[in-house]
């Protein structure tokens, strides 16, 4: 009887989740490839090689910089796509196509000046970069290598192989001391950036590519090709998942690790769940194109972007 009552409770929770529309839309020139949040500032990288900054306080969108165009393998001049961005204490870190051999350019914008840190000659296929602190960045390579890079002295501090399979994503925890790396293997690797060691391998939930990861307060979530949104508790060792009906390309956690977001369906809806009960709380509807990033600004404000010119902001209350 208790099992029946619990099942009915879960069914009702899923059935009566609130459907919400966005309260704010931001549009940029070109498609959005990455977004990053630091305090009240949203950083945006686009397919046209442009970096934008959006301030929540005054709802002001400004273009920060545009990087030079590149030549592709045919010799044609094209825009250098900015596909990874990060924002930390008035400094902007971003990665773009170099146009040469699949290698990447790494840039740092600070004091109204753009510095070119890594280029094609360095032969690093960087997919993602995030600040660890003001002077260091964590780089995720296509080869699933993790590099701690000294931004000030332009050198590699350490390099470690996170997995043998092709890289998919990484996420830093809230104090930027640990990172969760995912790959095509379905395994999520936890790396301690202080000891420069692999702490553990999270496996058993996803059986295929984990496209996206989130990492907050010893909770790690992953969005899998196997249509499972994985949930790992690093302290208790507990693992679980939420079932989708399509490849789960995106996941996000709120700052208290109490709510998780997944894109579970082929349509561009965002599903928000309570992590404790796995009950569905909200469906966020209105995004055009395939959603590529979700960020919890706070417990009641969510930002999402897609492979379009559109960024949406949602209020849960």
Provide a brief overview of the structure.
With 317 residues, the protein is mainly beta. It has one helix and 31 strands. It folds into two domains: 1-28 and 165-317, Methylamine Dehydrogenase, Chain H (7 Propeller); 31-161, YVTN repeat-like/Quinoprotein amine dehydrogenase (Methylamine Dehydrogenase, Chain H, 7 Propeller), CATH 2.130.10.
Notes on the structure:
- The chain has 2 domains: 181 residues, 7 Propeller (Methylamine Dehydrogenase, Chain H); 131 residues, YVTN repeat-like/Quinoprotein amine dehydrogenase (Methylamine Dehydrogenase, Chain H), CATH 2.130.10.
- The N terminus is likely disordered.
- A 5-stranded mixed sheet has the order 1-28-27-26-25. Strands 2-31-30-29 form a 4-stranded antiparallel sheet, with no helix packed on it. Strands 3-4-5-6 form a 4-stranded antiparallel sheet, with no helix packed on it.
- The protein contains 1 helix and 31 strands.
- The protein is 4% helix and 55% strand.
- With 317 residues, it is mainly β.
CATH-scheme architecture of the largest domain:
7 Propeller
Question: What is the CATH superfamily of the largest domain?
Answer: YVTN repeat-like/Quinoprotein amine dehydrogenase
> How many helix segments?
1
Q: Assembly type of the shown chains?
A: single chain
Rg over CA atoms, rounded to whole Å, is 19 Å
Q: Count all strands and give the number.
A: 31
In round numbers, the mean pLDDT is 94
Distance, first to last CA: 35 Å
Structural class: mainly beta
Please give the CATH class of the largest domain: Mainly Beta
- Report the helical percentage: under 10%
Low-confidence stretches: 1-15
Total domain modules: 2
For this structure, the CATH topology of the largest domain is: Methylamine Dehydrogenase, Chain H
